[in-house]
């Protein structure tokens, strides 16, 4: 150890019943003793681990600043693996800042964002993917996202990665033994055996990789953009789905200017619904910006609900706009079916003819017709598989995905070497890189710069 002792406010900035100052490092107890006087006269440094004592925070002039409870957690039995004292004060930001200042004057250094977690990682309390799960859990926007992050924190992903690494490691050992002791008479693996061994590891890794799309949706929500010309009923559909009057609806075209984003829970799966400004050529500068923004939203969306006003049908503007988008990203929603009752068959035929190969359905946003069918269609498009969080590993982090991509590429290269009849030296090079890439996920083989970069994204005090 021998690291500096660090301190920070670990609770949210705002008003709350309680706020916590966390102090971690070799001098945590001595520093805390300078800021905190217990009611009983006992020193924090004389306490056993996991004790709570009541007392007062006093400034340098021995003036009373706040009441507090001091919680002791001595190394290695703390989050960071170091000596930790947490001062539980009252949760006002001004008072917490005052207490922090006293602690810093007593000899602690202000912690960098994520520094407590970084120390936990460096002291082997968590691996890198588990540390990243903390931030995922803190930022979880839905219950599903929190559940997945909790699984990662428990090490579900790490253990899957470690299993793959172990398998590769065993193969490396066996191939190296062949090279080192060529005369020894033990059963050697044939190229076919090596290949089928690698296929197994590859399959496990690919399954993990494929979970990334779902994983990202779990974390960020499926981005669903409501797009269409002015007045077709985009905001009305948003309101109907959310069952609130979230967006302003009027019969004036160009009502929505800025985008409106709201999370919507579709059977446990988060959808991020984005209502946008109707697309049209406009001279109005505000509307122009809105339309430009709509185009950007379309780019980022996982799904575009392209809304048509069935009274106007499919216009050439609609066709022009849609032609710029990949068909599989679009679901055509014919709205205001209530206004054209009796003409459904004819309308369907027309849409089919003008918009070949698109999925489409007919609804009424205001009369709530076809809404369940719409929800069902979205589910079918994206969530055909069951979202069982139980034991399944979901890849949610882009850094992990990139490392896994690279690891898979090295396996492919190893298999290629086998197929080309190359000697095991070649295969070994790839297998060792594979090992390194997998190790990047859990943090065994990642360089310091990357580690610093990861932890700097954490919030202050974590
Ligand atoms: N009859 C009927 N009217 C609807 C339906 N959906 C929307 N409307 C009406 O159409 C008008 C426009 O609705 P909005 O939801 O504001 O349309 P928008 O696409 O958000 O319009 P902009 O924000 O201007 O681009 C309003 O008067 C709504 O009441 C529907 O299913 N049936
Ligand atoms: Mg609108």
What does this structure look like?
The chain is α/β, with parallel strands linked by helices and 462 residues long. It folds into three domains: 6-123, 2-Layer Sandwich (Gyrase A, domain 2); 133-216 and 394-443, Four Helix Bundle (Hemerythrin (Met), subunit A), CATH 1.20.120.430; 221-365, P-loop containing nucleotide triphosphate hydrolases (Rossmann fold). The protein has 15 helices and 13 strands. The protein has helices at residues 28-35, 93-105, 115-122, 128-139, 143-154, 156-180, 191-220, 234-242, 285-300, 316-322, 344-354, 371-382, 398-419, 424-442, 448-456, and strands at residues 6-9, 16-24, 36-38, 52-58, 64-73, 84-91, 109-110, 222-228, 260-266, 269-275, 303-309, 330-335, 359-362. The strands form two sheets. It has a seven-stranded mixed sheet, with helices on one face. The protein has a six-stranded mixed sheet with strand order 9-10-8-11-12-13, with helices on both faces. β4 (52-58) and β5 form a beta hairpin. α5 (143-154) packs across α7 and α6 packs antiparallel against α7. It is flat, with a radius of gyration of 29 Å. The mean pLDDT is 91.
Which helices and strands appear, and what pairs or packs with what?
Elements lengths: L5 E4 L6 E9 L3 H8 E3 L13 E7 L5 E10 L10 E8 L1 H13 L3 E2 L4 H8 L5 H12 L3 H12 L1 H25 L10 H30 L1 E7 L5 H9 L17 E7 L2 E7 L9 H16 L2 E7 L6 H7 L7 E6 L8 H11 L4 E4 L8 H12 L15 H22 L4 H19 L5 H9 L6
Parallel strand pairs: 1-7, 8-10, 8-11, 11-12, 12-13
Antiparallel strand pairs: 1-2, 2-6, 3-4, 4-5, 5-6, 9-10
Helix pairs in contact: 1-2, 4-5, 5-7, 6-7, 6-14, 7-13, 13-14
This protein binds guanosine-5'-triphosphate and magnesium ion.
Magnesium ion binds next to helix 8.
